[in-house]
Structures
1.
Amino acid sequence: MNKNKIILLLVAVIASFQLMAQNPIVTHMFTADPTARVFNGKLYVFPSTDVVCDEGKGENGFCMPSYNVFSTKNLTNWTDHGKIIDQTDVPWGKKDGFGMWAPDCVEKDGIYYYYYPAPPLDKSGFRRVGVATATNPEGPYKLEKTYIEGVNGIDPNVLIDDDGKAYIYFGGGKELFVAELNDDMKSIKGEAKLIEGLPKGYKEGSFMFKKNGTYYFTFPHDKSGSEEIAYATGTNPKGPFEYKGMIMERFKDGIWTNHHSILEYKKQWYIFYHHHDISNNQHLRSMRADSLFFDKKGKILEKKATLRGIGLTSTDKPIQIDRYSDAKGLKVSRLKDKNVVGWNLDYIKPNAFVTYNSVDFCDRYKKITYRVASGSKGGKIKLYIDNKLISTTEVTNTGNWNTWKEVTTNINKKIKGVKDIKLVFEGDDEYLMNIDWVKFE
Ligand code: FUB
């Protein structure tokens, strides 16, 4: 069995059904190209699906047979509503093309229009774009018999403007395209037009949104070896646009793609994107999300990808501190325990720190427990909340770096509200300990 197949089995078979509060959002399957939308007060995400294919299947290393849909009301607990479209359902598509790349979904007059690329049976292009409709974002979706005439390319994205006109953006390569959709949302008016004003270099994954009258045309852009998320703005949905620069820096750890969507939910803006968190394989990706901010003039502030992600973390379960907000003097590794998809902090040096934001405290806590392993003399963990020292926990040698023990300290402290926590490590060995999680009781 090859390495990819082993990874897939680990994730799909052994890992229990986990939807995380942190990044990556989903750990029970591989998800990429997440398009997030708000429908009926819920945040939905429509990603593509990465799987491991048999030799020779798929394209460019990607093997993508179907689409699932996910939703959340609180950005912490996610529901997988299951598969909504499989490649074998596409009337005009290859049944074994494994090319169901980045999709989008929009709502108009109570109908949900799902746009997806697929390799066509008639070989009229690398990808054609199909439409499927439903009366519920979770499906069931009814697939149109043919693809949209005049839309030839990958990564469809649709904007419905304030005046009700809808535009479809698509393409991957040196150029991207836009066309106005007819009222039926299943055909275009005239011919697709080249989008002007974009920088040189490979671009794909268009995502258009409008804020305070400005059109933000955002796109993954390979300027220097892998894709950064960039943007351009304009006053017309069809362009031309003025290039404004980068939103998210390119990954430099072996994944060439990034693919995103941007939206506002409950008065906060978010960016959804993907990384190869679980697999370390750029063709088996996992969707992520982070908060996004604008300055007063509407400039998008550059976003550093985080492990912490979005949503509050409650204290009713162990806090996965390895999904941190900020850290120094330590590393993160996948847990060696093959029965779970998880990570731990390791190579923790003296004076290292880790912060984890937005923990929802609601009680008087009697004790704090850390799951730790140490192959050295160990050290101290100092816990701070609101810059106040809450506890100091001594960790000693547990046998080796992968022998885990729970270490508890009594605290008897009332902690209420949403707080950021900080752990600071002290000791005099080169490396002090590994930590899997921290629990408040
Ligand atoms: O997921 C397949 C392709 O990779 C997408 O369509 C592109 O945007 C890139 O993410």
2.
Amino acid sequence: MGIIVQKFGGTSVASRDSCAKVAAKVKKAIGAGNKVVVVVSAMGRRPAPYATDTLLDLISSYCQEVESRERDAIASCGEVISAAILASALKAEGLNAMSMTGFQAGIMTDGNFTDARISSIDTSRLSMLLEEGIVPVVAGFQGMNRSGDITTLGRGGSDTTAAALAAALKAEKVEIYTDVEGVMTADPRIVPEARFQKNVSYHDMAEMANLGSKVVHPRAVEIAMKSRTPLVIRNTFSESEGTVVDDGPISDVGSTVPDKPVSGITHTLGVTRVLIDISGKSGEDVSLEVLNSLAAAGISIDMISLFADRVAFIVSDKDADRTEACLSGMGFEFSTKRGCGTVSVVGQIMRGIPGVMSKVVKALRDAGIEIIQTSDSHNSISCLMRAEDVERAARALHSEFEPGM
Ligand code: ADP
Ligand code: MG
């Protein structure tokens, strides 16, 4: 009998009706002879009373600068509530279930509050419960550090919990249940023409997740890839098979020229572009000084371009004030542009396939969109632009490359 880890996102546990749908999925997997571990997210989205953002708003209304330890303490509650409720709902459906916090499920993390990483998992209690025929319902997104404090794993962290538990338990697969049919060629909320994909490779999924596709957390993909656990993205509210994320379609194996260079389009919003003038200061050391001091302040930067006379990069809008303070403190001349976004085309072996970049530039230019900056990798090309251009850009690139056809 194999183990399956089933993770249910916020919308899947938002109401009694949706919990009934969840129970049906769990029952079906058990009926097919599997042992099931359930991982849950917090119920619903802001302004739902126990959604993570609602809880964070609540604590912020008492205190402007909430300490990260306390922020994690409250942020972890949403999942604990879901776990207790879902375990009770499963019991009412005749299943033997038990709720658990991340720590009770054996999840230890490093000490990096709000974005902790899992350091180890002691599966003994989970294994014992499974042996006894009990369905553990684990609160996602959380663990405990070595001092015994509650930590959280960053936005979308329940996916990571599920993938990590699946790896530790040597599960047959991890199923991520959400509100879409599976992985599409773009976010269907902004690109209505986005197509469903039956099978996506770990590599493509990791790249898409890293470049903004929030259908699954990048760390969850990384863990699934490392442990070679198939990851299935499915809809709680339908019977469809979902998207299997594994080594990828057979046709890709061994071929060096993919039929299509682009397999998906992703986007992000809420980024700030920073441009620092370092002319007049001595080249390399200055760039290094900037990078070091931002790293020391814990500000993560992206799309970094170093030139002899300037340094350009992006930060999340929420880090913009701190970035400005840091650079002003160092005496730099700089400009910032808040409210930007990125759109990326993602595919296997994109570098070296002629003409992808020129097609990207042409499609955006034809749509009248200004590209502020670009960056590329082996598997992707990303363009920075104004936030209001992001939707149009994603659609324009989707129709230019027709991924998934
Ligand atoms: P959950 O709360 O279940 O974790 P999320 O909101 O984190 O759900 O993720 C599901 C959402 O991801 C979808 O509603 C969809 O808008 C978005 N999404 C972004 N990119 C994609 C994509 N390529 N395929 C499918 N959904 C995507
Ligand atoms: Mg999610």
